[in-house]
């Protein structure tokens, strides 16, 4: 199991080890889409990635890993990946200036350095900018002439010559406001009011279409994996994250070898290979709701170097068509690594009627998945959108349309992104939630250690747990009513055959049930009754994953 010590304390894992649960993976199993692809437009589309970086443009020691950012508010800086990045001499950490140059303006990521050197050599601003270009710069398309944009272009050239670099985003915003003020002053014959400037800028932006600068490819592990990452020890977290990063890198290398292509000829009639992809990869820890959601944004530039030595636009149609297969490849890769290194076992679960099952870690139940995710809100909205589609079109949406509706549901249920927190603070909050809902006297880290021990010792005896005995015996008898009315001989037969009793005497199992029968009206035992009822329903429905019964909250 890699570097993990086999010293996990075997606390209660009811029913989890009833038999050796095995799983055979095939690509036919459809997972939740844990790799998504979205267009990134030129302009400020990249800012949501850089604004959360803990250390801004300060480069960090390459020996620092994810755990070194536990106490910093924000996320680690991005890193350069891909053969295309190597073509440009890019490696290590991504700075905000580099992101702005590449994804906002379509220039070489080190455009500021190139422009400064060119101007120092006596080149004009135009020549200096041309030296920093990789292919064509991004264009903005408008249905109407834009005097504000003409003035802004002039001011940008003046700034670049004076400062020997392109303005950053804040400076560009000031220049754009000045351009609007200059234009309105000439039109109105007076100084414009602030509201007039804002209206002019909003109108101009609405009439402008921005070029596609790149593609945000997001890799997210299955929720049960994310839960283990969020609740486990630093060693567990590091191992899971390493498996994730390796899976991301392997999938991107595969995509680069297959889908890095561009077009040539009139109307792009001929497709040729590109040398590789320019990728800026960013790590995020959580989702907008504050749930553990470790994921990687692999931002792929729309600029590629063709095999003929010319820079041009990435033909992303093949990449889009491969989204589902790449998602499956990522899932298969991370599952395989976690099984080999940590001994984790996975099971198929069906969440939506009529759909293929998804893979989750055995022992991380659906109740826990629901507690630490926004999936239920998204699914409810998705079902509403599908129903609306059927009503409007008279047919069920295709898989492609369903995928788009799922993205729409995700966006419509998305809350505002909270201010960045330290990872260590988030870990404490996740553990507190676990203790409140699922703890039963143990914290999240102990839960993960117990689960890992159970996965790696499937034949080991389990210690007696009264609550788990109640659930298993109650299910075996047929439900809560049967449990409360069972005669002593019935209880004896059931407990003597119970898996809980394999290494315990009859007295322990029987004494676990008696308090339930005598105090069934108390709030604590009402919870136990609910556990028995839930487990009974799940089993009778024919999809009683052992993990679901094992993790029913009390």
Question: What is the compact description of this entry?
Answer:
By secondary structure, the protein is α+β, with helices and mostly antiparallel strands. Helix content is 50%, strand content 12%. It has 3 domains: 35-83 and 212-374, no CATH class; 107-210, no CATH class; 464-554, no CATH class.
Helix/strand layout:
Layout: E1 35-41, H1 47-50, E2 79-81, H2 83-87, H3 96-104, H4 111-120, H5 125-131, E3 140-142, H6 147-163, H7 169-188, H8 194-206, E4 208-210, E5 212-219, H9 223-231, H10 234-259, E6 261-264, E7 270-273, E8 279-286, E9 292-301, E10 303-305, E11 311-313, H11 317-321, H12 323-342, E12 346-349, E13 358-361, H13 366-371, H14 375-393, H15 399-412, H16 423-437, H17 444-456, H18 466-477, H19 480-485, H20 488-496, H21 506-518, H22 523-540, H23 546-550
Antiparallel strand pairs: 1-5, 2-8, 3-4, 5-9, 6-7, 8-9, 10-11, 12-13
Helix pairs in contact: 4-5, 6-7, 7-8, 9-10, 10-12, 14-15, 18-21, 18-22, 20-21
* Alpha-beta classification: alpha+beta
Principal-axis shape:
elongated
The end-to-end distance, rounded to whole angstroms, is 32 Å
What spatial order of strands do you see in the largest sheet? 1-5-9-8-2
Uncertain stretches: 1-31, 55-63, 497-507, 541-554
Average pLDDT taken over every residue: 77
Count of individual domains: 3
The rounded Rg comes to: 29 Å
Instruction: Give a count of the beta strands, DSSP E runs of length 2 or more.
Output: 13
Helix content: 40-55%
How many distinct helices?
23
**What oligomeric assembly is this protein in?**
single chain
**How much of the polypeptide forms β-strand, as a percent range?**
5-15%
Biggest beta-sheet profile: 5 strands, antiparallel
